[in-house]
Structures are given as structure tokens and as C-alpha cells.
Specification:
The complex is a heterodimer of chains A (330) and B (314).
Chain A lengths: L20 E11 L5 E6 L2 E3 L3 E5 L6 H8 L7 E6 L2 E3 L3 H4 L3 E4 L11 H11 L8 H11 L15 H12 L6 E5 L7 H16 L3 E6 L2 H7 L2 E6 L2 E7 H7 L3 E5 L3 H10 L6 E3 L2 E5 L7 H10 L6 E5 L3 H9 L8
Parallel strand pairs in A: 4-9, 4-10, 7-8, 8-9
Antiparallel strand pairs in A: 1-2, 1-3, 1-5, 5-6, 10-11, 12-14, 12-15, 13-14
Helix pairs in contact in A: 3-4, 4-5, 8-11
Chain B lengths: L2 H11 L16 H17 L2 H24 L32 H10 L3 H20 L1 H7 L4 H34 L5 E2 L5 E2 L1 H18 L1 H13 L3 H18 L31 H27 L5
Helix pairs in contact in B: 2-7, 3-4, 3-5, 3-7, 4-7, 5-7, 5-9, 5-10, 7-8, 7-9, 9-10, 9-11
The chains are: A alpha/beta (330), B mainly alpha (314).
């Protein structure tokens, strides 16, 4: 959308931390015709150089947000700035620096993988046709599709299509990569390759905006994350901080589970639960030394095979935040 | 995208304060802007089986007409009044009776036979699919984030559709000329006005007629493109466009609608026969081109207004 929109305010709110941000939205809202509020006053800040995980159940407004950031959908109100420029007004200047994989790959089945990339490259007015062949080959190589480059895309498996979609996002050196569910349809080996690729790109200084419903995936690669539910932002921040918000659990592995549970309760550990030879409970507060608990167990004759505190996962944090699992929002 | 827009982008990127920190130098080249996508679009369109099948059907029409005429006049006598021929219906010119005397007339007959339905249907398929088909396949979002630019993409699609109009018409004409040359004698020919012109001039007129026929399709092309921006289903856009073509052709035959008919895009289509008069009768030809320009302007603007403000959710 090239036209200046009425919803674009002239005054731009830029806080101190926004100067370094690759994506900044302020009160970004999208109400579809029919009244459905897809995104509700979203304030998102994606720091430069981060691998930013964008989490949320299906229907929580992730894709609508991404489409607004890419200039495909006009916001109802609020602003979105990408690489410091307002969207959707500055699509022409911003998007050549952005690689995107949105809601799965879309390909021309009757064209080969190579020709698909050449077409997307030709659509970019800043792409140099003289280097096209070389850049297409490099992108294919980067996602491991060189051998299948001449095959028609309709003969590709879902995983190969996903790789080709990623290759399209990598046709040029990018400052921002927006990857919507990038490991969808990939086998475990493929998922690992993508994670490695994301880390490499981030290492080269590309900011990666990664939406996923796979929490452990986000936890493995992301430095920052935001959680959405029902169109609203629930939280955002560094992954380590988010996970720290949820408390870990004490785990004791022992053949004498019943005794262990009794001793732990006596020692004041709350929420003790027994599953086979695992006894778990809440990690006691601050000043209590875990080693003392272990000593108490041993003193009571409990044969301890394993003892330790399990770090809280992002999933625990997520459940703690939303109070529920990944249900589709109604 | 126009040159003005290109320079606007350059100027826009130079704004102080708005410039991203580590600027990767990447300029919008005029060549890439104007021709890169168009060339790729042409390649993509003409590599589609569907496009080739449409062209094959169009090429088959003159072959069928030529063989039919050849069989009818197989005893060596000159053709009688072939009243049932497609060229003689709907107020079209009666070129068909002259084919057996001169193969060049097969070109005129074939164009007159394909212009009312086959050609506009083929254009309807290509134009209707232009945006809606990309939307249907999901490729539209990737073209737009490339970023193809909405205006630039729309212009590219229209230019490609117009190229297809020209190619489709030339396919009919060349197929007809080839079949005509194989099955029938060639030579000097008679115009509708009764004067005689040389074969070379006849060829020139045939080419001119093919160009006029191609130009007659620009209105349908714009209409199809507009419909294509309204829906996310390629099939629906194609069907609607082709349906409209047929409806308008039928309405054009209803006498009660006489007052409206001059505004139908197909009303002056068969005026191309006036190029075979001596001197050429320009009135209806000019009216035809005027109507096409009007349709292109109105529906082109509507398509632009719609497409540049549309939320792309597919």
C-alpha cells in the first residue's frame, strides 16, 4: 500500500530503547470487517540482533500482526515501524531488507525450484538481474536443495517446499528475517538444520523474528520472546527472564519414593508428588540450602539416585501466564 | 512503477534520521523496476500448460474452418454462398465464400470466427487469473513482500494480458495463413468494395486487422483484471469474466437494448472488416478503439483502487 494512510500519525513515539529496535509497534490494532478484533493495542519491541520468538495459540493474532508488519494488511489504528520506517507506507524501502516466510511456503508448481526463486527475485526491484543466477544458487545451497533445484516444485515434499520458501527469504543479505512456523513439515534432521541456520544468521547480525507454537524450539534458539493470546500481548522480554518467572521443581529419583516424599514434607517442601521412582516438589524459598534437604533424605535412610532442581521451561512460563495450554481461542 | 515513484523512493531513503544504521547499499534500478518483473511474468505465463492449451485451441479453429471449406468445395467448383459459416453470422463479414479462391481470406474468416467468443474467453481466463490466481496459490503475498509493489504488479499483469491478446490473435492469423496457403491458392484479392489489391497489400491489411482485433480485446482484459482483484479464487474470477463476455454478447443481440449497445465492449468488434474496404471506412473502427480505451481506463482505475487498498489475507 503506497498511499499514505489516514491512520498514520505524524508524531512518532520513540522511546529510548526503541532507537535500537528493528520492529516497534505502538497500540497496533486490527479489526476486520465484521467486527472481529484480531490484534488489540499491541506494543511490540524487537531489539536489533535478537532472535525473537513470537508465541501464541492458533488464532491469537500472530499472523495478522506479521501481515501488518509486512504491509499486507493495513492496521485499523496504531503504528508499526520496521527498520525504523513506518509500515505499510515504506514497504518499497523496507522490504528489500526483509526476508519473510509467512504462513508456509507458496510456490508455482509448474516451475522448477530454481525458477520459483528467480521469479521472486525478479519481483524485487532492487535485485540485480546480473547476479540473480549466482544468488539463487547460493540460496538453494544454503537450504540444501541444490540437488532438487531443477525439479518442478509440485513434485517437492512439504519439507522441501518449506526449504524453498526459506531460500526465497535468503536471496539477498537481509537485516530482518520474519519466519512464521519455519520448521513446519520438516523432519527432526531438517528442524535441526533450520535451527542451526537461524543461529548462523543471527550470528551474522540478522535479526530473526520467529513465530512458532513449538515452545522448546523457541527456547532453544531465541534470545527474546513475546506471548500473545486473543489478540493481546501478554508478555515480552528476554527468554531467560521469562523462564525465570516460572519456578523450577525439585526432583528426587529414588527406589524409596514413599519415604522420600514423607521426609520432604517434613522438611517443609510444598506440593510433593510421587510418580514411580520420581518424587517432585516445589523448590523451597531462597535461604533454604538444597544440600540440607539431600542430607535429610540420606539421614532418613532414603537411597537417593538423583537429586536436583529442574529449571523451569518456557512452557511452564507460558502455562503460568495464560493459565492454560495451547487451546484455540474462541 | 513510474520513474517518478522510483525517484520518490530514492529521496525517501535519504531522509535523515530515518536511515537504518548499517545501510546495505541497494538501489532500485530502473531496468529492474520496469522490465525485470514483466519479462519474468511473460516467461511464467507462457510456460503454463493452460496458456499453451488455449493457444492450441485458437490455432485449431482456422484448421477446422479451412478443412471444412476444402471438403465443401472439394469437387473443384468455386464456393457457393456458405451461409452457415461462423463469419457470416452476427452481422459479420461474409469472407468465408471467398476462401476457396484465395487462402488469405481464411485469415479474415478465422479472426471473425474467434473474435466473438474464443478470443475473449481466452483473454478472460488469463486476465481473471492474473491477481486472483496468485492470491489463490498464496504466491501473491510473497510477490508483495519481495516487494513487487502493488501498482507495479498490477501494471505488469495488465501488460502481460495485453501481450497475450496480441499473441493469441497472431496465433489465429498465422495458423489461418498457413492453412490457407496449404489448402487454397493465393494471389491478388478483391476488397469488399469490389476493387482489386495485390497479395502483398492484402497481407499488410491482414496484419493491420490482426492488430485491430488484438486492440479490440483490451477492454475485456481490463474488465477481467478488475474482477481478478475482487476475489481470492482464480476459478471464480475466470468464470465471472467469461460469463460477462457471453452475457454482453447476448445482450448485444436484443433489439430493445439498442440505446445501451454502443457502450458494450463488443459492439463494434466486427468493424475490423471495414479495413477491407476501399477506401477504408474508419468511423466504427475509431468508435471501437475509443470504447476499448474507455473500458481500459475505467476498469484499470477500478482495479488499481481496489488492489492498492486491499488487505492481503491469502
Amino acid at each position: 500500500m503506497e498511499e499514505p494512510s489516514a491512520t498514520e500519525p505524524q508524531k512518532v513515539d520513540r522511546g529510548d530503547d526503541d532507537d535500537d529496535a528493528v520492529i516497534v509497534t505502538r497500540a497496533l490494532t486490527k479489526r476486520y470487517r465484521g467486527g472481529q478484533l484480531a490484534v488489540d493495542t499491541l506494543d511490540l519491541t524487537v531489539p536489533a540482533g535478537s532472535v525473537f520468538g513470537f508465541l501464541g495459540p492458533n488464532g491469537s493474532g500472530k499472523t495478522t500482526t506479521i501481515r501488518m508488519l509486512m504491509g499486507l494488511i493495513e492496521p485499523t489504528s496504531g503504528t508499526a515501524r520496521v527498520l525504523g520506517r513506518p509500515m505499510p507506507r515504506a514497504t518499497r524501502a523496507v522490504l528489500p531488507h526483509v526476508g519473510a516466510l509467512i504462513e508456509g511456503p507458496a510456490l508455482y508448481g509448474f516451475l522448477s525450484g530454481r525458477d520459483n526463486l528467480a521469479r521472486y527475485d525478479a519481483a524485487d526491484p532492487t535485485a540485480d538481474p546480473r547476479t540473480r543466477r549466482k544468488r539463487v544458487a547460493a540460496a538453494l545451497d544454503r537450504v540444501g536443495l541444490t540437488a532438487a533445484a531443477g525439479k518442478k516444485a509440485k513434485a517437492y515434499s512439504l519439507g522441501m517446499k518449506q526449504r524453498l520458501g526459506l531460500a526465497a527469504a535468503l536471496l539477498q543479505p537481509r537485516r530482518l528475517l520474519v519466519l512464521d512456523e519455519p520448521t513446519n513439515g520438516l523432519d527432526p534432521q531438517g528442524m535441526r538444520e533450520i535451527r542451526t541456520l537461524v543461529r548462523e544468521l543471527a550470528h551474522d547480525g540478522t535479526t530473526v523474528f520467529l513465530s512458532s507454537h513449538l515452545l522448546d524450539e523457541i527456547e532453544q534458539v531465541c534470545t527474546h520472546a513475546a506471548v500473545m493470546a486473543q489478540g493481546r500481548l501478554i508478555t515480552q522480554g528476554a527468554v531467560a527472564e521469562l523462564a525465570a518467572g516460572a519456578r523450577g521443581r525439585l526432583v528426587v529419583t529414588t527406589p524409596d519414593a514413599a519415604d522420600a516424599a514423607r521426609v520432604l514434607k517434613e522438611q517443609g517442601v510444598a506440593d510433593v508428588a510421587v510418580t514411580d521412582d520420581r518424587v517432585t516438589g516445589e523448590v523451597p524459598d531462597g535461604d533454604r540450602e538444597l544440600a540440607d534437604l539431600n542430607a535429610a533424605l540420606v539421614k532418613a535412610g532414603v537411597r537417593v539416585r538423583g537429586f536436583g532442581a529442574e529449571r523451569a521451561s518456557l512452557e511452564d512460563a507460558f502455562v503460568a501466564l495464560t493459565g492454560e495450554g495451547f487451546d484455540v481461542a474462541g | 512503477m513510474s520513474q517518478a515513484e522510483t525517484s520518490a523512493v530514492r529521496k525517501g531513503r535519504g531522509e535523515p534520521g530515518d536511515q537504518p544504521h548499517q545501510t546495505v547499499s541497494r538501489r532500485t534500478t530502473l531496468r529492474g523496476t520496469l522490465f525485470g518483473l514483466f519479462r519474468n511474468e511473460l516467461l511464467t505465463t507462457f510456460r503454463r500448460w493452460r496458456t499453451l492449451a488455449l493457444l492450441a485451441v485458437l490455432a485449431a479453429v482456422p484448421i477446422l474452418v479451412g478443412i471444412a471449406v476444402k471438403i465443401e468445395t472439394g469437387d473443384g467448383s468455386s464456393a457457393g454462398p456458405a451461409g452457415g459459416g461462423p463469419g457470416s453470422g452476427g452481422g459479420g463479414p461474409a469472407f468465408i465464400s471467398q476462401i476457396s479462391n484465395n487462402g488469405l481470406f481464411l485469415v479474415f474468416t478465422a479472426l471473425a470466427a474467434t473474435l466473438p467468443f474464443f478470443l475473449p474467453m481466452a483473454i478472460g481466463v488469463i486476465a481473471g487469473d492474473a491477481i486472483a490466481g496468485e492470491s489463490n496459490a498464496g504466491t501473491l503475498r510473497y510477490l508483495l513482500v519481495a516487494p513487487a509493489g502493488r501498482t507495479r504488479l498490477l501494471l505488469t499483469k495488465y501488460a502481460t494480458t495485453l501481450t497475450f491478446c496480441l499473441v493469441a490473435t497472431l496465433v489465429v492469423a498465422i495458423s489461418a495463413l498457413t492453412v490457407g496457403a496449404i489448402l487454397f491458392p493465393l494471389g491478388d484479392l478483391m476488397t469488399i468494395s469490389g476493387t482489386s489489391i495485390s497479395f502483398t497489400e492484402g497481407l499488410g491489411r491482414a496484419l493491420l486487422i490482426a492488430l485491430v482485433v488484438a486492440a479490440s480485446l483490451t477492454g475485456v482484459a481490463a474488465l477481467g483484471l478488475f474482477i481478478s482483484t475482487l476475489t481470492g479464487s482464480g476459478i471464480a474470477a475466470m468464470a465471472t469474466t467469461v460469463g460477462l463476455v457471453i452475457t454482453v454478447q447476448i445482450l448485444d443481440q436484443i433489439p430493445q437494448l439498442h440505446a445501451l449497445q454502443p457502450y458494450f465492449f463488443s459492439h463494434y468488434w466486427l468493424s475490423f472488416a471495414d479495413l477491407m474496404r476501399e477506401p477504408v471506412y474508419w468511423d466504427d473502427l475509431v468508435k471501437n478503439l475509443g470504447i476499448q480505451a474507455l473500458y481500459a481506463a475505467v476498469f484499470g482505475s477500478a482495479a488499481w483502487a481496489r488492489f492498492t487498498t486491499k488487505d492481503i489475507t491469502a
